[in-house]
Fold these 3 entries.
Entry 1:
Amino acid sequence: MKQIKITSSATVYSNLGALSTEDQMLMNKAIKARGNAYAPYSKFHVGAALLLDNGEIVLGNNQENAAYPSGMCAERVAVWQAGSLFPGVKIKKLAISASSTITKVDKPIGPCGACRQTLSEYEINQKEPFPVIFMGEVGEIVKTPSLLSLLPFSFDSSYL
Ligand code: THU
């Protein structure tokens, strides 16, 4: 028997103004993208903004459906849009922001497990980590150094 330790670190910022200019710009895009979410069921609006290596910014927001599981998260909408428009172009960073029309989202909202798994495929393929920056509507902002730091023991193509 052996014990192993899994560690990861993240930086926590107290407000948007504490971010670098580029991170701030990308988070503002995610905040704007959130405004176009279609979330009549959960009332939870998520925006995602990907900065790509070619300078393009690709946005996504959650798109819900009356048959609930048929909806899609903001992060996957964004990353699949990026993959379809700019195949093979590296992701430099991802910003995510969430708000709700029923509560004040004052905690950083990290990507769900399915989005982490989906995003991990892209980080692994590009062989370069990309930071993930996430927040609620207000409050602290978390920045992780990579996607995989959010997904220990992840499943990847090497297992197939
Ligand atoms: N949602 C996202 O867009 N991203 C996440 O990482 C978590 C959840 C969406 C899905 C659904 O439309 C709503 O938020 C509530 O779960």
Entry 2:
Amino acid sequence: MNILVVEDERNLADAIVHILEGASYHAEACYDGRAGLRAALAGGYDAVVLDIMLPGMDGLEVVHELRRHGSSVPVLLLTARTATQDKVEGLDSGADDYMTKPFEAPELLARLRALTRRKGDVMLDEVSFADIRLDLATHDLSCGDSSVHLSGKEFEVMNILMSSSARVVSKQDLLSRVWGASEASENSVEAYVSFLRKKLAHIGSKVQITTLRMLGYRLEVFAD
Ligand code: CA
């Protein structure tokens, strides 16, 4: 499940991305209306979380343009305003639901579940890469008949690496997506990558987490 977040307050945008990733969604943020519209029109998203008050092009215009271009992607509008007129305008412009800021993470997730259910999609229940599978519900990492349970942070790091296929993921990216605004340092990332390497070896996978100096990590498949 791939979610686009369009919100110009970077802290809030990044917090929403973090909440979504914690719930095993893939999420990407755009920080202004035009970039958000371009990304949403490019497709590949199962839902868009869209702020109304945006620089350049506001959220109502974005959703209007999306519908005008034939996109039916579900849109959840965020608004700091509680005026009935904004909600009516939002829904009239083609949004599917709206949520007033500030909101709690469970409400955001519940509304997105409802929106994506309406679209008839089935939640992705596992990700796979080469000979390994990661169960998004149980957090078990498997290779053939062997499996091992991943702790919360191990799961999040592995989910990001596997979802990125063979692309390089930087330490800084892992740090901000898994640890958010906490006090963690790049040492934490290294420690968890080291735990994951041991677990990959334990289940007998040919997948290895390769370190690319100054760049980050990438999954690679090694032959015997
Ligand atoms: Ca805003």
Entry 3:
Amino acid sequence: MTNRMHKPKRLACLYACLLCVTAPLRANPPSEPQPAQAAIASAHPLATRAGFEILAKGGNVFDAAVAVSAALAVVEPSGSGLGGGGYWLLHRASDGFETMIDGREKAPYAARADMYRSRPGASTDGALAAAIPGMPAGLAHLAERYGRLPLAVSLAPAIRHAENGFAVGHKFHKLLGSRQPVIRRFPSASRIFLPKGKLPEPFSVLRQPDLAETLKRIARSGRDGFYRGEVAEKLVDSVRAAGGIWSETDLASYRIIERRPVKGAYRGIKVTSAAPSSSGGIVLIEALNVLSGYDLEKADETARKHLIVEAMRRAYHDRALYLGDPDYGYVPVERLLNADYAAGLRSTIRFDKALPSAMLAGEPEQNAEAANTTHFSIIDRDGNRVAATLSINLPFGSGFVAAGTGVLLNNEMDDFASSPGTGNAFGLVGGTANAIQPGKRMLSSMAPTFLENERGVAVLGSPGGSRIISMVLLAALDYAEGHDPDSWVSLPRFHHQYLPDGIQYEPGALSQAEAATLAAKGHRLTALTERYGDMQAVLWNKKTRALSAGSDPRGEGLALVRP
Ligand code: DON
């Protein structure tokens, strides 16, 4: 298993690792009745509908996941796309098989640890910020290995939306507005996203004919439609002409990796989540392990929040210290997920006082991380599940479109810890485990997650950069307290990520009295003016045998349950 590798790997070995698909993880086949309906929650109504369209055509949950991912790539280009990557967490009901498709982007082989030093903006804006995309390979792999339908069928809704256009929403308008200065620098991107030089108004129609052509090539030729041939040539030429460092080898050698999801338990709930190269599952389970020593339901509200924050602080500290691409260095997964290790962390938590982050033993050689992305959750009528979090990093990624492809490239290189002493766009710090190396995957916070106990099965996740994990943590605790998706997606959120050392909280997440009590314990508090996240969640309630679904009220998504 990749996460048991103990030594840094050299490139030759890396190739070997990338070619291997890890053994299936088998659990007992389920004995419970299945939902008999399907539920899909995604960040865009057209993507949710694309999923149901494919289910109605006889597709399984994995075909639906291809359709939803591809539709999001077209209708929510701020969050994810063919030029990005992500993680698909899969559960097959017939035999309990579970796996995670790691379609995370990789640094180009010409990347160097110091490539962004003294180059402000270079890791976030333009062609040099873009890592080698994993999304097209993920879609092809999902369809070929797990789907029932040809890729051409599952990609059809996305192709239609790219060709015929879709109506721009308020969120699109706002996020595009925020990235407009960068997009304006690149004619191939402005032509698509700023037609006639202007920000498209909400409800105007945006067409992406070049993207439709690229999708059609993938529909015809699978991964080779993107990573080889005409599209690959255009990508490389365009990136290099704009100061980037991609090569055709980078594209041709990109491979997804199937990995064993990380597993944990909290109060009888089985937790299954993203393995490295994402930190999502480890940080989530580590925080839950710390919290499992307390009866949070009996604690008063402020004590509960204090304990949750202290657990977040310690788990995010370990993220910064230890986590990175497991194919490039040892990641101590077993230790970080161990209950005794969590008990040790718990023993340093005081009820009356916050522990300043600077007092935690061990400092990463300073570096940090950043957040726009998307998540969708599906359960089908047979109980199969997909949780997928997909990203191009900041809204509209690098703002750079490779000419003639319609593909907006990510700026995921910013998720590496690349400039000592500074956090990334999300203020995250990290050390050598997440330093830039050729061909390496940058550490992610994405946390597509399953929760399961006798009450039911939950599928959930969210965008939000470094805050993804704390959002999923709060939702998991809410599930443990018996609440449903509508509650998980809408509850007011608070967050601590070790550094910066403070609690960030949404309007309504802390009362004045709670804020005062937490401040008296030594917490630094930052009241956010805007809410964050766009959680998409579904629940199969085994007791009532009902499916329910929730789409974050902060976004413009759609959660539907249908026969
Ligand atoms: O992989 C990560 O952790 C980030 N690139 C995710 C970015 C994100 O969620 C932005 N969302 N608002």
